[in-house]
Amino acid sequence: MPFSLQFNYPIFSTSCSHQLKLHNSIRNQPFKFLCTSPQSEEAAKDSSGYEKENGNGHVILVEKYRNGTSKRYIIDNDSEIKMFLEEHVPATTGSQHLEIPVTELSWLPKVIKDFVLPAGFPDTVTDDYLDYMLLQFPTNVTGWICHTLVTSSLLKAVGVGSFSGTSAAASAAASAAAIRWVSKDGIGAVGRFFIGGRFGNLFDDDPKQWRLYADFIGSAGSIFDLCTPLYPSYFLPLASLGNLAKAVARGLKDPSFRVIQNHFAIAGNLGDVAAKEEVWEVAAELVGLALGILALDTPGISKSYPTLALTWLSVRILHLWFRYQSLSVLQFNTINLKRARILVNSHVLHCTVPGIDECNRMESILLWQRFLRPRIIFEVSLEDMLDRGKYKSMQIKQLLNLYKEEKYFLVVNQQKPRDFEVFVSFKEGATSLSVLRSVWQTYWLYQNWGWSDNIFDRLEQSLVELKHRFPDLLQQLIEAGWDTNNLSLKVPKEMSIEELPAL
């Protein structure tokens, strides 16, 4: 049964038997909260109806989080906003309270599921994905067991122990050497494991950046290897750190380059493109090995460690320069967030958009999104928007009305007047096009921020401009050859807002 409690204290936090915690960010205001049973969706509807019947206000927004938690925003008859946070309690029968979709591996903890499975699983992959990966796991385990055993044989072949004719101590030393060598590889594998699980959803958006970062990290790993002659007693930790860094680099390089290969294969010939790339890479490897051996045969390099280190440093800098140049010539016709910023800024200022070649040249490969201006922060709770935007409760209805035709909310952070910053949160049903619209509105506000002191006048005018000029942006993008049907602008999935109809 739903029930309600009324308190008249300015700030309060508590929890009830149904795991509900209350948040009240609108300072110095009384609040009201509900506790409802999470057994069914009907319970939530009943509690909402109870609020309305008693004339104490109604729910206008529900923020839903991936972990099942929801935050409800209630507006009362005095236009005061009150909030409470309701934790999700898994139901044993019936539908879930927040209509959380039931997916495969529901028994698996969310943290582990997010780490080992692609974002949006199972909707973002084919039906045979999970079966394939479950069989691949023991396949790879047995493969690495064989690798460990073969490594021991290789070490014995070069004189580290033998299968026969040696003492037990010599055999033990050979096995210990093999274990140390394989342990070095194992520590490196941890880096790939972490990168794949933690950052797997980043490579589609900006493969050029991550491919270049992979080379920087790989260079750092080579430095550890280069230091092993200076500290031979610390061979294992130095070699392990070097392997770890190079494994992290490989974890960044492989998925990034697969995206680049897919960009090349415009005729659906990804396998052929990958095979021919292998030919180019092996040819370069053979030439590089030959030149490296020739350098090692040079007395000045082979007998002088400083000369060897300086030669390595010079070649490595040249390698990084070539890598940057190769990535700079790539011409993606898809629109990620970096390219969207360039295109939108040009359209806001000049009513034109650069072509594919020009935009890719203007794109900064090294710079992170967080350092680009204006700064856009996605997935911000409406509670934080209200606090930092310095909005009053009576202005909330006006804010909701402004964005009734959009699939997002956007406000400007009023606490940083010198550093223009916007907060964006997306409603349920938002798409990549919604993200592009929010970016356009951000740049219009950024370029026209000083014309009025009234924040709502600015927001309203920006939305008017967005409505009138955004179709022209799309038309120009299509004419310039940009792929507007496959925008690389992902809608954040950690939080979404459900906007409920007003009474």
UniProtKB/TrEMBL annotation:
Source taxon at top rank: Eukaryota
InterPro entries named among the record's database cross-references: RUS_fam, UVB_sens_RUS_dom
Chain segments annotated as coiled-coil in the UniProt record: none
Signal sequence coordinates: none
Family: Belongs to the RUS1 family.
Protein name: Protein root UVB sensitive 5 isoform X1
Species, as recorded: Nicotiana tabacum (Common tobacco)
Gene assigned in the entry: LOC107798679
